Amino acid sequence: MNISIVEKDITEIEIIKPLWEKLNLIHLDKSVYFKSKYESFTFDKRMESIYKKAQKGIIKLALLLDNDKGVYIGYCLSAIEEDLGEIESIFIEKQYRKLGLGDKLMNNTLDWFESKGIKNIEINVVYANDGALPFYERHGFYIGNYILKKK
């Protein structure tokens, strides 16, 4: 398997749309209280906040490319605003999971934050997506607080 990390500019963000849509379906499936949010959530809506962050900060888009097939199979979208680093979205196609590729993407992103002097780093995880928590814990992320939303 010949997989590499390819970095793209925000102007090429449409590349991740099909992958992001699969992630949104996972969030829809996992969501306990806010399924309607994910049913109506679109890629364009999600990217509005990314474009806003790009105006004030820096965006990093790292993609996993299966060189043998010539297809993108995962991505990590991250942002820096002032002194806060945020992993906005990370996804890997199901058949490529459990191969260490998530670790590869995460380490690439964490190295980027470190190179920019960013120590305050966050990621939001959809409630009930408990299966993702051990992955983030391996990379030093722990639950800091719960944010409750009125339905």
Q: What does this entry look like structurally?
A:
- This protein is of the alpha+beta class and 151 residues long.
- It contains 5 helices and 5 strands; from the N terminus they run E-H-H-H-E-E-E-H-E-H.
- The protein has helices at residues 17-30, 35-40, 43-56, 101-115, 133-138; strands at 3-8, 58-66, 71-81, 84-92, 120-123.
- A 5-stranded mixed sheet has the order 1-2-3-4-5, sandwiched between helices.
- Strand 4 (84-92), helix 4 and strand 5 form a beta-alpha-beta unit.
- The protein is globular and about 45 Å long.
* Oligomeric nature of the chains: single chain
- Shape annotation: globular
Element order: H for helix, E for strand: EHHHEEEHEH
Write down the overall mean pLDDT. 96
Please give the order of strands in the largest beta sheet.
1-2-3-4-5
User: How many strands, which pairing sense, and closed or not: the largest β-sheet?
Assistant: 5 strands, mixed
Work out the number of β strands. Answer: 5
Portion of residues within helices: 25-40%
Q: Unreliable segments (pLDDT under 50, ≥5 consecutive)?
A: none
Secondary structure class reads: alpha+beta
* Helix count from the secondary structure assignment: 5
The end-to-end span amounts to 45 Å
Secondary structure: elements and pairs:
Blueprint: E1 3-8, H1 17-30, H2 35-40, H3 43-56, E2 58-66, E3 71-81, E4 84-92, H4 101-115, E5 120-123, H5 133-138
Parallel strand pairs: 4-5
Antiparallel strand pairs: 1-2, 2-3, 3-4
Structural descriptors:
single chain; 151 residues; alpha+beta; 5-stranded mixed β-sheet; 5 strands; 26% strand
